[in-house]
Amino acid sequence: MAVGAGRILETLKSRLSAVTGNDAVTEQTDLVGDLGLDSLQVMELLMEMEDAFDISIPVNVMAEVRTVGELAGAVQALLN
Amino acid sequence: MRLFEKLAHAAAVRRDVVSSGGLVPFGVTVERLLSPTEGLVAGRRVILGGTNNYLGLTFDQTSIEAGVVALRSEGTGTTGSRMANGSYAGHLALEHELADFYGWSQAIVFSTGYLANLGMISALTGPGDVLVIDGDCHASIYDGCRLSGAEVIRFRHNNAADLDRRLGRLGERAQNALVIVEGIYSMLGDQAPLHDIVAVKNRHGAMLMVDEAHSLGVLGANGRGLCEAAGVMDDVDFVVGTFSKSLGGVGGFCVSPHAELGLVRYASRPYIFTASPSPATIASTRAALAALRSRSQLRQRLWHNVSRLHGGLTALGLPPAAEPSPVLAVLRDSRDQALADWQALLDAGVYVNLMVPPATPGGISLLRCSISAAHTDAQIDQILNAFRALPGAGHAATGQAALA
């Protein structure tokens, strides 16, 4: 499936802006440290990305993910 | 020390949740038990309206006597794990009785319900396997998933279509997946749509585990739980549960029609590396299971109380968040409102559970009642009277008229 990194990032940013009201989300933004997402919001975000790109994202992936860019990278890896 | 910094965060959260009466609602001390449904909290006599003591068996005379006899004849503890010196005749008898109750061939007793989930999930699955769990599953299920090292996929709470989509994405791997749901969910008291979930997992060839912690002794014609009530016993691979709610003890179990369950004993670290339940605990639990099986009037009494409280709260304009169940959750507008209401209920002589984020799904705050067969009509009415004084309650609806 040819999904560009840009589209993944844009999808993530728009979801995060909607949830947090923060319009300044970048690749470097820390999901918990900067946006204050709690664990349930992180889980919900994962499910939304699963549905948006029709993939399975194991919850375990989040152990390695802190920033928006890292999550986008994890999604990209699962798509390839 | 930096190690203590995350505890400082917990301390800050705790400071934040102190009621006007100076109490921290989490870990309140019950200073003295007066009965299955009454105790002393903060120096005052209160109705215990949040204890999971669904059948009211904690003071059942037969269970107490069985425990006393075992304590005198077998001692205070087993001083060993089930795999070493900690399997007594009583442990095996309880396993036999649990298997017989479900009409299945196999049962394993664990030391707590928490350990039953850790022990089962981590023994059944490992790296390379897939667990597909309801997003609102209990912490013990999440922790079992972590211990297993398997991939964990969540589906939206009680949404069989969402489960279907997620199993579908797994392709052939779905045939080796373990789906986990609960009979009754502990926060809102809502039940899994088990009929639909079974149809989905059958279509994908996955296995199914149902945690009946809050539904054992509560649902089903014989009290086996939601699997029995939904008529899907033949489609379930594993039922896990606890002795610490309807059976009034402490401990956990898994039952299964699969002969392979017996092998879990050799592969389950939470089974192998912890002490087995004490002889008195086992003896009391066996007596309580016998009571659960023979005294269906306990279940009838429980549901009578559920109807009375659910109907009463609805009439007050405080409708519980889900269908009638022994867990009734009344949603509040904010955490601070829930905290103030919790203290007001306590001042009125009623203890319930306060549930606030992050423990709750969707960031909601709620007052959680759990109902017992041992509650009297008068106690249910006192609980209702306490709720009647809360903001948002319809003061016009009073007395028995509200229950009609």
Could you name the key traits of this structure?
heterodimer; A: 80 residues; mainly alpha; Non-ribosomal Peptide Synthetase Peptidyl Carrier Protein, Chain A; B: 404 residues; 7-stranded mixed sheet; 4-stranded mixed sheet; globular; disordered C terminus
Please tell me about this protein's structure.
- The complex is a heterodimer of chains A (80) and B (404).
- With 80 residues, chain A is mainly alpha-helical.
- Chain A contains 3 helices and no strands.
- Chain A has helices spanning 5-20, 39-53, 68-79.
- In chain A, 20% of the residues are buried.
- The mean pLDDT of chain A is 88.
- Chain B is of the alpha/beta class and 404 residues long.
- Chain B has helices at 5-16, 61-74, 89-102, 113-124, 139-148, 160-170, 194-204, 226-229, 261-264, 269-272, 279-294, 296-315, 335-347, 377-388, and strands at residues 30-35, 38-41, 44-48, 106-110, 130-134, 151-155, 177-182, 207-211, 238-242, 252-256, 327-332, 350-351, 353-355, 365-370.
- In chain B, the strands form 3 sheets. Chain B has a 7-stranded mixed β-sheet with strand order 4-10-9-8-7-5-6, with helices on both faces. Chain B has a 4-stranded mixed β-sheet with strand order 1-2-3-12. A 3-stranded antiparallel β-sheet of chain B has the order 11-14-13.
- The N and C termini of chain B lie far apart (60 Å).
- Residues 396-404 of chain B have low confidence and may be disordered.
Write the topology of this structure.
The complex is a heterodimer of chains A (80) and B (404).
Chain A: H1 5-20, H2 39-53, H3 68-79
Helix pairs in contact in A: 1-3
Chain B: H1 5-16, E1 30-35, E2 38-41, E3 44-48, H2 61-74, H3 89-102, E4 106-110, H4 113-124, E5 130-134, H5 139-148, E6 151-155, H6 160-170, E7 177-182, H7 194-204, E8 207-211, H8 226-229, E9 238-242, E10 252-256, H9 261-264, H10 269-272, H11 279-294, H12 296-315, E11 327-332, H13 335-347, E12 350-351, E13 353-355, E14 365-370, H14 377-388
Parallel strand pairs in B: 3-12, 5-6, 5-7, 7-8, 8-9
Antiparallel strand pairs in B: 1-2, 2-3, 4-10, 9-10, 11-14, 13-14
